[in-house]
Amino acid sequence: MDFLATAEGQLFVAVAVGIVAVGAAYFLFSSKKPKVCLDPENFKEFKLVKKTQLSHNVAKFRFALPTPTSVLGLPIGQHISCRGKDSQGEEVIKPYTPTTLDSDVGYFELVIKMYPQGRMSHHFREMREGDYMAVKGPKGRFKYQPGQVRAFGMLAGGSGITPMFQVARAILENPSDTTKVHLIYANVTYDDILLKPPEVWNGGVGFVSKEMIQAHCPAPASDIKILRCGPPPMNKAMAAHLDALEYSSDMQFQF
């Protein structure tokens, strides 16, 4: 894997390219299906059992499932809705993508960046171990199936890395899945990076450009797809770059 570095005040861009058919052992469930916990129509309460501060404004939240063998039941590429209260006590609901898969039994985890003015950020910031989170799902238009494309290009910004991480991890853990993944991940500063790669590497600086996409993502073809997830301005800019590079609408997907 190759990564691009940066200086503060500019976009930090990490690029990872690889055949993600090797890595962790693939988790195989027994013939008895585990209990699925999500309900698409009703919110269910899950207990926060561990909160790990990763930086000044990022934390990892581990929520227990009903039994040690329960699974969340979230298809790869989809997300959940979390319900909480903002600083004024008003209800707020926001989508999040767990960094865990159904191979992680008995719990699920969220890596959350908490913004000073974020309404749901306030709820997560105030959560303590033993508190409960209301969750509903699954939700989303994207559902990954092994081998559905030859290669993915992933354009992520900030917390938009979480759905990319979910898809890439599912591919990595399946030895029969030969899908290639090409990831460009942008942040304003090094400290903003979620799910950090190695501490030190050589790389580049600047905004994600057409040239960068051309150099690191698969070329337009019927058997590839470019996924994008980031702040609205970035998503808009990436869509324009992809259109200019002649990626058709069928080759693009925005989370």
Automatic annotation (TrEMBL):
It holds the Pfam family FAD_binding_6. This is FAD-binding FR-type domain-containing protein. The keyword Flavoprotein applies. InterPro entries: CBR-like, Cbr1-like_FAD-bd_dom, FAD-bd_FR_type, FNR_nucleotide-bd, OxRdtase_FAD/NAD-bd, Riboflavin_synthase-like_b-brl. It comes from the Eukaryota. PANTHER family: NADH-CYTOCHROME B5 REDUCTASE (PTHR19370), NADH-CYTOCHROME B5 REDUCTASE-LIKE (PTHR19370:SF184). Residues 41-145 form the FAD-binding FR-type domain. Gene3D superfamilies: Nucleotide-binding domain of ferredoxin-NADP reductase (FNR) module, Translation factors. Keywords: FAD, Flavoprotein, Membrane, Oxidoreductase, Transmembrane, Transmembrane helix. The chain crosses the membrane at residues 12-29. It comes from Penstemon davidsonii. Its cofactor is FAD. Belongs to the flavoprotein pyridine nucleotide cytochrome reductase family.
